[in-house]
Design brief:
five-stranded parallel sheet, Rossmann fold, alpha/beta, six-stranded parallel sheet
């Protein structure tokens, strides 16, 4: 594990790292990148993101984006990233909404009618996958309840979700995140916190929580690119989702300090990333140096 305190990280990246870690970096063929807090925050792209992506491409390493934020559809994310200067294909992004859809299709193929506590964009993603979104009415009975990061949350719909959950219906949460990173002076209450309120009201936790840290979020990427776990790195700003998933998937786990996690949170956590860096630009330099050092031997 490569782990320095923040002051040491800021000094330079010239300090020696172990041969084992250099070898692991040299094996990497694909980067799974978290989005909010890793490549941008709120609506602001980090200045180093595009140079980092260009550097990785030149090294022959592919990448894709994983996000636990289901509030936007794939098309919405593609539009957002394009406006920021990043063009991606649909298959290069995987959200927790898609993870929930995949979970339902695989494990509950007869489920068709959903009460969805989510944004209109999230609801459209489920409808595009063939699901029926039921209305907020006691006679419009769903097969299951899906709860996500609902930035359009209304009290009426929260109560309706609690009602159906209390009746024992299948209950799926898209992601466990407590808050969503933002560059605004506020706290964005995320899916995990909404589920906490539903647990207090109903006594039930979700039957399934998709998205990170579920290692299945990485399985599709490894199959798509024909990769082994040792050839993929998961980069993100959250220990309890990004790093936990990397550990469970046996991938390289890289924590960036550009989002939710700071050194105090890291020190209090029982989970330790393989690498801790200030931001992805420092990771790019580490990978390039590991490859260069190997070629020079």
């Amino acid at each position: 594990m490569f782990y320095m305190d923040l002051a040491e990280i800021k000094k330079s990246l010239t300090e020696p790292i172990t041969e084992n870690l250099q070898e692991r970096l040299r094996r990497i063929r694909h980067l799974a990148l978290d989005m909010d807090g890793t490549i941008y925050t709120g609506g602001t792209l980090f200045s180093y993101t595009v140079p980092f992506l260009n550097r990785i491409k030149k090294l022959g390493i592919t990448y894709s984006f994983l996000t636990n934020n289901p509030s936007k559809s794939i098309n919405d994310y593609r539009t957002l990233l394009k406006e920021m200067g990043i063009s991606i294909k649909r298959e290069e992004i995987y959200t927790s909404s898609l993870a929930a859809i995949d979970f339902l299709k695989k494990n509950h193929p007869r489920v068709n009618r959903l009460f969805i506590l989510g944004t209109p964009s999230m609801i459209r993603e489920f409808e595009a996958a063939g699901y029926i979104s039921v209305h907020d009415h006691p006679n419009d009975v769903p097969d299951a309840v899906v709860v996500g990061f609902d930035k359009t949350l209304s009290y009426s719909r929260l109560c309706r979700a609690a009602w159906w959950i209390s009746k024992g219906l299948l209950y799926v949460a898209t992601n466990p995140d407590r808050v969503c990173p933002t560059d605004e002076p506020t706290i964005l209450v995320d899916c995990g916190s909404i589920c906490a309120s539903l647990e207090h009201a109903t006594g039930r936790n979700p039957d399934a929580v998709t998205g990170k840290p579920d290692p299945q979020m990485l399985d599709g990427i490894m199959q798509r690119y024909n990769l082994q776990p040792s050839q993929i790195a998961m980069i993100g700003d959250r220990i309890y989702t990004d790093i936990q998933m990397a550990i469970d998937a046996r991938a390289l786990g890289v924590l960036v300090l550009s989002g939710e996690t700071d050194l105090e949170i890291l020190q209090q956590s029982g989970l330790k990333p393989d690498i801790v860096v200030n931001d992805i630009s420092e990771l790019g330099q580490m990978i390039e140096e590991a490859i260069h050092n190997y070629r020079c031997v």
